[in-house]
Amino acid sequence: MRIRSRLAVFGVLFLTASLRDARAQNIDFAAIEVQTVKIADGVYVLMGGAAQGNILVSAGSDGMLLVDSMYGPMHQKIVDALSKIGRQPIRYLVNTHLHGDHTAGNEAMARLGAVIISHENMRKRMAAAKNPAPAAALPVVTYNDRVTLHFNGEEIEIYHPEPAHTDGDSIIYFRHANVMHVGDVPSSLRYPNIGVDDGGSVDGMMAAARQVMTIANPATKIIPGHLGPVVGFKEIQQQLEMFAAVKDRVATAIRGGKTLEQVVASKPTADFDQGRMGGAITPDRFVTLVYTDLSRKAR
Ligand SMILES: [Zn+2]
């Protein structure tokens, strides 16, 4: 039993890496148009479809600051979209976390002169990955607990939640505009990815979602990592309820000795599926991620 469940987990971990790559390759980048949405004066969101991370932009007299960089093939489309906002140089790029849908465009942005900023754990993981990112894609500035940028008249506060989606997450808050990019901390209504190989966990995801609602206020425009462009506390609450219920069901099944296959087949998300099918993570995949995290804790 013990060995079997270990083998199952090994299979899941292997699948995680290969699925991530496969997903990136299945995107028809040529067909994607970048959609620019103005959120406040000098603040924009660039959207490249559900599979890619939303980019938050600050544009003003100091230049441009971006949060995240999408996949590499999107670079020219992003630059074209930015040129319609203004002609300023891209001076900073802050990454919410290491996943390729948020960072694979880093190298090209660095070549344009952007200084890349991240949590120190994100840089460590990127540099140590099996297929490490090119040196130019790595953050130049890292922080540990919290850092503030004074840019375009804005106070841009970068917070690190306890390990959540990964162990190197950043939440970026434009205090004056009251706009916050939360990366892949649960927010928009889809099944979230959990970076189970990157220090992420179910409990961490839930804690970070609650933390967002203590740093932000009900009027804050919250930019999710995917979909959106803007969500509020209501969506975060709905995701927390879904997480709590699915966690409880999967944990009970694990205690009852159920295998991953049995738990997936029991469809423990069924009553939450409606409205959550628009993302890259299917219900079965989400259940697999929850099971992977909870079963290794149970061992
Ligand atoms: Zn991610």
Textual characterization of the structure:
The chain is an alpha/beta fold and 299 residues long. The chain is built from nine helices and twelve strands. The chain has helices at 2-25, 75-85, 100-103, 106-111, 120-128, 202-215, 233-255, 260-265, 283-298, and strands spanning 35-40, 43-47, 55-60, 63-67, 90-94, 115-119, 141-143, 146-151, 154-159, 171-174, 179-181, 221-223. A seven-stranded mixed sheet has the order 1-2-3-4-5-6-7. Strand 3 and strand 4 form a beta hairpin. Helix 1 packs antiparallel against helix 9 (283-298), helix 6 (202-215) packs antiparallel against helix 7 and helix 7 packs across helix 9 (283-298). The longest helix is centred in the first third of the chain and has 24 residues, at 2-25. The radius of gyration is 19 Å and the shape is globular. The N and C termini lie close together (12 Å). Mean pLDDT is 92; it is low at 1-22. It binds zinc ion. The site of zinc ion has 6 residues, from loops. Zinc ion binds at residues 97, 99, 165, 184, 193, 195.
